[in-house]
Amino acid sequence: MPLTDKLGRVITDLRVSITDRCNYRCIYCRSGEEVVQFAELPITNYIRIVRVFVSLGIEKVRLTGGEPLLRKELLPMVSELAAMRITSSGKPLNVAITTNGHLLAKLAEPLKQAGLSRVTVSMDAVDPAKFARITRVSNGYDAVVAGIRAARRAGLDPVKVNAVILRGFNEDQIIDFARFSRDEGVIVRFIEFMPLEEGRIWAPNTVVGFNEILAVLNRFRPVVPLPASTRGETAMRYTFDDGVGEIGIIAPVSKAFCGACSRVRLTSDGKIRTCLFSQSDHDLYGVVKQGGTDADLAAYIEATIRKKEARHHIGEPGFLKPSRSMVHIGG
Question: What are the tens digits of pLDDT across the range 168-183?
Answer without folding.
Answer: 899 999 999 999 999 9
